[in-house]
């Protein structure tokens, strides 16, 4: 708050602004967070959402708002609110179209629902019921692992009821570096990130920058990320809202 004209504020989508939804469900956006986030960008130099979601999804749920950048698909793409334009920061995987066709065949062969395949510009995701037979899940993972290996530049990510083929070597640490190199035209006075457990890697990178480069950082843990952060706030729908309002200069 002492040097807002060079501050960089990053918000995780799932951890900071949305209620988590069950696999196959749709997360709920806190409308007050949606109203408050633009105030961050009016006060601070760079305010934005860094997420594995695509910009199109962020826009669909109503969070492509004024004064708020969107770095979608782990900063593979950037939606600049100032120009209302989206541009790619990295090229999509050359093996993505082949992977899409193979993924469809695998899902169909396992008698799972091909309607739950979601194609983004840089990745493929598939949601399956959490009670799916373990043997079927293992077969799915094996087949997708082979698809990723054949593509050469994709990696397989897994969570409960969810698998994704995404660009290899891409995580939030890499995303942060890309944002600072390609989007932020100055040395930040501070870098803040607010996120939950999957954001552990970016918190570790902020630790390194603080320790080795002397860069001021603020690590805000949300929901299930309590250890090793500077500040912990409960998860959505209301937990992060007082913090956002305080940053915006409102009384809480």
Question: Overview of this structure, please?
Answer:
- With 252 residues, the chain is an alpha/beta fold.
- Helices cover 35% and strands 24% of the residues.
- It contains 8 helices and 14 strands.
- The chain has helices at residues 13-17, 31-43, 55-60, 96-109, 134-151, 172-182, 200-213, 241-247, and strands at residues 7-11, 18-19, 28-29, 46-50, 69-72, 77-80, 85-88, 117-119, 124-127, 154-159, 162-167, 190-195, 217-222, 231-233.
- The protein has an 8-stranded mixed β-sheet, sandwiched between helices.
- Helix 4 packs antiparallel against helix 5 (134-151).
- The longest helix is centred in the middle third of the chain and has 18 residues, at 134-151.
- The protein is globular.
- The protein starts with 6 loop residues before the first strand and ends in a 5-residue tail after the last helix.
- 37% of the residues are buried.
Q: If strands are numbered along the chain, what order do they take across the biggest sheet?
A: 7-6-5-4-1-12-13-14
How many separate helices? 8
- Mean pLDDT over all positions: 88
Seen as an oligomer or otherwise, the chain set is single chain
Secondary structural class: alpha/beta
> How far do the termini sit from each other?
16 Å
> Biggest sheet, in brief?
8 strands, mixed
- How many DSSP-defined strands? 14
> What level of helicity do the residues show?
25-40%
For the CA atoms, what is the radius of gyration? 19 Å
Strand content: 15-25%
Gross geometry: globular
- Which regions have little confidence, pLDDT < 50, spanning 5+ residues? none
User: What is the chain-wise order of helices and strands?
Assistant: EHEEHEHEEEHEEHEEHEHEEH
